[in-house]
Amino acid sequence: MRRKDLPTTPSPMSIMRMLGELSCRAFKKIYCRRNYFNRDAQLIQMSKLFDKLSRVDEALSKISQHISNLPSEIVSTERALGRVLAEDIISPSDFPPYDRVAFDGYAVRSESTFGASSDNPIVLRVIGSSSPGEEREFEIRGMEAVEVATGAPLPKGADSVVPLEYSRRLGEHVEILKQVAPGANVDRAGSDIRKGETILRKGTFLGPFEILAIASLNITQVRVVRKPRVCIIASGDELVELGSELKRGKIVNSNLFGIRAIIGELAETRYLGIAKDEPSSIKGLIEACDDCDIIVTIAGSSVGSKDYLYDVVKSMGGEILVRGLSIMPGKPTMLAVLGGRLLVGIPGYPVSAMVAASEILLPIIERLLGIRGVEVKTRVRAKLSQRVPSSPGVRHYVRVKLTKEGDSYIATPVRIGGAGIISSLVRSDGFLIVPEEVEGYERGDEVDVIVYRRWLDLEEGFQKS
């Protein structure tokens, strides 16, 4: 046998070259079948792994650097509930605007009552009566009184009011059974709010009590921060709209309604529809968000073969700020800046979507509005009915059901994992948040539960289905 016919051992370089060619052929064979090699194929990247997971506070800090003030607008006081003030409110007048009677009784000169008691009543002549809204004017002199109702203007000459329970009417006279000091039972003009006083600061969220104060000062309009405009895009070939026929393999685009419910009080939402699992479809809907402050995409932010959001945003010149959070559920959340607008990629699994919307999207909207103060959440101290494990470095949102035993609350985990189990949200009452640095809790540990229900059915108890 000639030397050239003998088998030769391939060099390491040759082996690497052959493996590379085989990999390339396999890649093309697989992806060409799925029509990846077209104009959209340039959007596909081989690297689709989460580079670095961010904590929630880190993610919010990064995107806050790209938040700018929203413009303001004027709304009527009757439509200002739930809005955020864009400027301080200065009182245009005193409140109350006049010396006001604080109790039903008799307006008097306090000096006329000195020494009065039930054993030694002082008799005063009643010269009339006054109620709120009446324009009667009286002037009280010594040893006179005017019968008054709560809220009526204090008659001229009077400096105090004797409550009804310390008086006894005798025809045109009244017996005073207890002496009163000057100013007793009278609300002086401006004693509540002074003219020129700042009553509400810029950034104040207007709730029922704030609206009450504004209306009391006869302020008919207020300047508020315009609500953030949020465009919502869903993606997924499996999605159909609510009310559609559910064929095999199809599910309702229900995340849309949950997200709207979470942010609807603070933001205006515009739904653009369902994008197909194609880069061009996702890109087309994103390009339609030309008048919004925040673009919200539902699904497509993970690292699967049909998760195109990362590549689409990069191809459109966007800056990826966060790709992946160290939370469970909700890990595939993405934050970016695209064309001067904020983009929030919400995971597609329902529980992940609700956690991301509550913990990331809602705080972003609150920062855009410039709301003053720190949000106060309802917390309940409860004992765990069983052990809750967790992974180090990951913040876990454990769904728990609350019950009561005596004076104590008991928290029973409904689900620790399961980002797609919708029933776990309606069968639980709140989240037990396990911080990144805590490696789970043991049975009997006392923990704080963040309650997301307004009413708790504590008598029903927990029944595992």
Topology readout:
Elements: H1 12-33, H2 56-64, E1 72-76, E2 89-90, E3 100-101, E4 105-108, E5 122-130, E6 144-148, E7 160-163, E8 167-170, E9 173-176, E10 186-187, E11 198-200, H3 208-216, E12 221-225, E13 229-235, E14 239-240, E15 251-252, H4 255-263, E16 268-275, H5 279-287, E17 294-298, H6 309-315, E18 319-323, E19 327-328, E20 334-338, E21 341-346, H7 350-369, E22 379-384, E23 395-405, E24 408-415, H8 423-426, E25 430-434, E26 446-451
Parallel strand pairs: 5-6, 13-16, 13-17, 14-15, 17-21, 19-23, 22-24
Antiparallel strand pairs: 1-12, 2-11, 3-10, 4-6, 4-7, 5-9, 8-9, 18-20, 20-21, 22-26, 23-24, 23-25, 25-26
Helix pairs in contact: 2-7, 4-7, 5-6
Protein name: Molybdopterin molybdenumtransferase MoeA
Domain MoaB/Mog: 231-367
InterPro entries: MoaB/Mog-like_dom_sf (IPR036425), MoaB/Mog_dom (IPR001453), MoeA-like (IPR038987), MoeA_C_domain_IV (IPR005111), MoeA_C_domain_IV_sf (IPR036688), MoeA_linker/N (IPR005110), MoeA_linker/N_sf (IPR036135)
Description:
- This protein has 465 residues and is α/β, with parallel strands linked by helices.
- It has five domains: 41 residues; 156 residues, Molybdenum Cofactor Biosythetic Enzyme, Chain A (3-Layer(aba) Sandwich); 46 residues, Molybdopterin biosynthesis moea protein, domain 2 (Alpha-Beta Complex); 88 residues, Beta Complex (Molybdopterin biosynthesis moeA protein, domain 3), CATH 2.170.190; 73 residues, Beta Barrel (Beta-clip).
- The protein has eight helices and 26 strands.
- The strands form seven sheets. Strands 7-4-6-5-9-8 form a six-stranded mixed beta sheet, with no helix packed on it. It has a six-stranded mixed beta sheet with strand order 16-13-17-21-20-18, sandwiched between helices.
- Helix 2 crosses helix 7, helix 4 runs parallel beside helix 7 and helix 5 crosses helix 6.
- The longest helix is centred in the first third of the chain and has 22 residues.
- The N terminus and C terminus are likely disordered.
- It comes from Candidatus Korarchaeum cryptofilum.
- InterPro entries: MoaB/Mog-like_dom_sf, MoaB/Mog_dom, MoeA-like, MoeA_C_domain_IV, MoeA_C_domain_IV_sf, MoeA_linker/N, MoeA_linker/N_sf.
- GO terms for molecular function: molybdopterin molybdotransferase activity.
- This is Molybdopterin molybdenumtransferase MoeA.
